[in-house]
Amino acid sequence: MAKILGYIAVSLDGFIATKDDSLDWLFKYDDMDLGEHDYRLFLQGIRTVVMGRGTYDFIAREPAPWAYGDKRVLVVTSQPISDPKGPMEVRTDVDALIAELRTLDDGDVWMLGGGRLQMAFLERGALDEIEIYVIPEMLGGGRPLFPATGFTASPTLVSAQSMPKGCVRLHYRFGAA
Questions:
Q1: Number of domains in the chain
Q2: What residue numbers bound the domain in which 22 lies?
Q3: Mean pLDDT over residues 66-82, rounded?
Q4: What is the crossing angle of helices 94-102 and 115-123, to 10°?
Q5: Are 109 and 3 in contact (CB under 8 A)?
Q6: Backbone angles phi, psi at 55, to 5 degrees
Q7: What's the whole-model pTM score?
Q8: Can you give the CATH number for the domain in which 137 is found?
Q9: Mean pLDDT, residues 12-36 taken together
């Protein structure tokens, strides 16, 4: 059975993007050597990428080519996507999507991007693990890592590691995953 994983960077004050949805604060860390935790190595174990519409729209606006090659890409949205940037499928029902993902056995699933969809998965007990890269930047506001919904949890710390440039990698497991 595929594991559903998060892999995300967050500012020291808890935001994943600025108020105007910019990630410029993060791009100056692109050359950081993460060793065995490098994004490219993480992506090798992923077969399915799941993202919400906001994340998809952000990626679609970027001039960079579609980065997901032969990965199965699922976008959760209630609105059709005309002229998609790359090969992808739309899903509208989070519960049905989780049931579908739990049947996969061809590689892990990455919850890409925004905190709202990750929170929806957490609330349903469907996010197995998350790697959070805390970046030493204060944004003063923006998109929170996890929106306040009243959800509570006590994940298990798998590891914590100091990284280059003052960053910290936190790896947590939820439930009995």
A1: 1
A2: 4-173
A3: 93
A4: 70
A5: yes
A6: -65, -45
A7: 0.92
A8: 3.40.430.10
A9: 91
